[in-house]
Amino acid sequence: MSLVIVGTVAFDAIETPFGKTDKIVGGAATFAGLSASYLYDNVKLVSVIGEDFGDNIDIIKAKGIHVEGIEVVKGGKSFFWSGKYHNDMNSRDTLVTELNVLADFDPKIPASYQDCEYLLLGNLTPQVQLHTLERLKEQPKLVVLDTMNFWMDVALEDLKKVLQKVDVLTINDEEARQLSGEYSLVKASEKILQMGPKYLIIKKGEHGALLFGEGQIFSAPALPLAEVFDPTGAGDTFAGGFMGYLAKVKSINFTNMKNAIIYGSAMASFCVEKFGTERLKDLTQEEISARIQQFVSLSKFDIA
Amino acid sequence: MSLVIVGTVAFDAIETPFGKTDKIVGGAATFAGLSASYLYDNVKLVSVIGEDFGDNIDIIKAKGIHVEGIEVVKGGKSFFWSGKYHNDMNSRDTLVTELNVLADFDPKIPASYQDCEYLLLGNLTPQVQLHTLERLKEQPKLVVLDTMNFWMDVALEDLKKVLQKVDVLTINDEEARQLSGEYSLVKASEKILQMGPKYLIIKKGEHGALLFGEGQIFSAPALPLAEVFDPTGAGDTFAGGFMGYLAKVKSINFTNMKNAIIYGSAMASFCVEKFGTERLKDLTQEEISARIQQFVSLSKFDIA
User: Fold this and answer.
1) How many CB pairs under 8 A join A and B?
2) What single-letter DSSP state applies at residue B289?
3) What ipTM did this prediction achieve?
4) Boundaries of each Carbohydrate kinase PfkB domain copy (chains A, B) (predicted)?
5) B187 touches chain A (CB under 8 A)
6) CA distance A221 to chain B (A)
7) Which residues make Cβ contacts (< 8 Å) with residue B26, sequence separation at least 6?
8) Residue from A245, A285, A301, A302 whose CB has the most chain B CBs within 10 Å, to mutate
9) Could you tell me the residue ranges of all domains in chain B?
């Protein structure tokens, strides 16, 4: 049984108030895969890269992540994104987006991936997300979908089709408002849960995350940080940690979902401490456990 | 021993997407006093009103709150504020501010108030806050200060003086950033705690609140609400509930502060359900207990 993650494996160039990088390894599936690999040992990626990606794939392989589902396009160039964060780190300008090989991405599911029990559909065109689902012979136990406002603008009908086939949707608060047409996140969640997913996770960045489902609500804190060095990939790292935890504990219910969100938040809190995937390359289980305990003491109270 | 609250007792006229009021009873001390009265039975207000306030004072008296410290200016007009909330309820325009009797407010502390053990200095000029402290013969066990960006703009030096004499400061996230010159709330808290207070509470509205002190951080959730009817007074209601809880349990430490924040948040969640003080007039202890339990289930998780 395995956790399959579909998403971008790419190059990023990032500028923050703390510094500037050349092309470094990025992409939603990269961040999610690295994050999940600390919690679950059978993680498999589906993506497309160009020949220019070269040895960079070793960052992913080094964590024992399967890469047979990452197509390498001969002579092709990998997806490239470049952005500059503002001083508040909550907003950014995209400087460059080169789709390159991603423009014709048609996800290939190797036979060895057909044991997929947990599927994370990273932020891609809803069409690609649908194709992935169709190419799995058995419906996974849990399908989590990440998307963004862009697809609500340009491919809403396709997005609604894929929403009907997933168990969990993760979006941010503005996207939840856009998708539902409701300002109140409670009302927004009610409308979105009628579109298909059984659970909705609303990511609020420095304000934490909300989980809606089974008629319940859970509010997870974000760890207040003295410095956010680079927020790139934090949402994908969150999703990877969330999935990795659920794949590990195997049982899907609201209680485990809550813990999964805490694990996802903890992994994301590491991600932002350095540029790109740097901090996710060599975490120890001790560091992760200590971070989880910080979340416990951050949010625990005891009213008699 | 008593809980003394200094602040405005006033008239408001409010417009929200849900409707519009004529002049109704408002004011920081009114909201805080009503809120505290559900948790502690010896609440005393210090304020100033005009003769026009008339029988409206009965809303406060009805909850057993002491009003000897509310000066009535003969022929004077009470402070009046009118505002209109935008559709998102997070921003508002002030339509009218008439200081009236508040312009010359010089707080009178009746002899019967000298048993003050808990003091809430509501949002007023730092000068008035300082005068109140000077007029108490004994330093209270706990002094909580509420303030706002306006006083940071026009009376920063006075504000810094009063900050040296208080135990807890409550402000919102933008104000914490302004006061400290730091964007990160962790860094902001470090600077602000060097200005005098032992504890800092950062109010984040729909995103909850953060407590800093004793080298620890606590993140309290806000209750996600289907409808926010009128946010006026929510911050004051929070402060009143916070103080009322601490006055009741009598012991000041980080653990009790955390619970106090949950009580304050619960009281604030009632406040916004109706216009002005309407919802704070006749709450039951059962309603409050049930709301506290909602906060418990909202934020509780159990990682082995």
Assistant:
1) 88
2) H
3) 0.93
4) 20-278
5) yes
6) 6
7) B8, B10, B11, B12, B81, B232, B233, B276, B277
8) A301
9) 2-299
